[in-house]
Backbone:
């Protein structure tokens, strides 16, 4: 009965790197193992040399950067020393190919210089955004934002209901009559409900917005312990019993801490982009596309989602 909720997800586009890793790393994993262990042992020193490729050193800091770059595309079961070896193998192959490209003077071509300039700009952007994120997030700011959310959030009403779903009104009237006469509602649900009622038709707690309108209107008009007359919806005929009513519980700080932190990061970064755009002098060539607006931060009420029951 509960409405489907579609959530948006952001995916990191690392396909080219992942494809390269999947082909190259297994070949070099065995030979890279000693160096990978050395990298793990020297992790505290970012300048420590963990391997050399034709005399070119690979440092622990480079391994860490590579791990961050290709990590989202690696199999989740690849952990510990095996993951370290995989990353070092990728970095070894990348260095070998870069050396071969340099030998062919590809680094002197206009196309390479353009890509290098773009990569530098992108890296500077990411460094600044990371710095802003770190400045925006503190335990004090997270708790302050959470408290503001709690104060501004309305106390939504929830009901805890059971229901029985059948195909025709006559059967629903018969069931409602039995339930109102005092027969066990959960047993009636197991006997008659067509949507699988092993749990006695228990829907748990829900808000009005989580149900289809006809069902919600009927359920929220009932008092605790009351049984409804038959209610028609797109799914069939319902008989509803209200087990309890309450104000929706506010999620604890621990439940939504991650969402609060994400909100602060997104807000700080969006504010920075907005400010820089406002202060900048940007001159576009004729026919150039308009700039994309800065990504807005999530609304402050977003953490409330953590307290909602699962939607079906």
Residues:
């Amino acid at each position: 009965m509960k409405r489907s909720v579609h959530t948006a997800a952001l995916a990191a586009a690392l396909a080219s790197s992942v494809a390269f890793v999947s082909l190259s790393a297994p070949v070099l994993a065995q030979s890279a193992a000693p160096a990978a262990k050395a990298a793990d042992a020297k992790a505290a020193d970012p300048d420590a040399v963990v391997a050399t490729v034709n005399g070119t050193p690979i440092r622990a800091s480079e391994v860490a950067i590579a791990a961050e770059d290709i990590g989202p595309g690696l199999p989740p079961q690849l952990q510990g020393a095996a993951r370290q070896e995989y990353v070092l193998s990728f970095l070894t192959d990348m260095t070998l190919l870069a050396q071969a490209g340099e030998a062919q003077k590809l680094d002197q071509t206009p196309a390479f210089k353009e890509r290098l300039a773009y990569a530098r700009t992108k890296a500077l952007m990411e460094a600044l955004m990371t710095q802003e994120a770190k400045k925006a997030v503190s335990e004090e700011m997270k708790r302050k934002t959470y408290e503001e959310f709690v104060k501004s959030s309305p106390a939504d009403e929830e009901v805890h209901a059971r229901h029985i779903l059948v195909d025709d009104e006559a059967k629903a009237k018969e069931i409602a009559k039995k339930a109102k006469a005092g027969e066990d509602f959960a047993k009636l649900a197991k006997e008659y409900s067509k949507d699988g009622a092993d749990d006695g038709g228990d829907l748990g707690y829900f808000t009005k917005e989580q149900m289809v309108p006809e069902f919600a209107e009927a359920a929220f008009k009932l008092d605790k312990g009351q049984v409804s007359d038959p209610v028609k919806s797109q799914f069939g005929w319902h008989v509803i019993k209200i087990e309890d009513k309450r104000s929706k519980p506010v999620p604890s700080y621990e439940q939504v801490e991650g969402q609060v932190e994400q909100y602060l990061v997104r807000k700080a970064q969006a504010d920075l982009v907005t400010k820089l755009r406002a202060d900048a002098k940007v001159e576009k060539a004729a026919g150039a596309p308009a700039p994309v607006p800065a990504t807005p931060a999530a609304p402050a009420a977003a953490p409330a989602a953590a307290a909602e029951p699962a939607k079906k």
The chain has a mean pLDDT of 81.
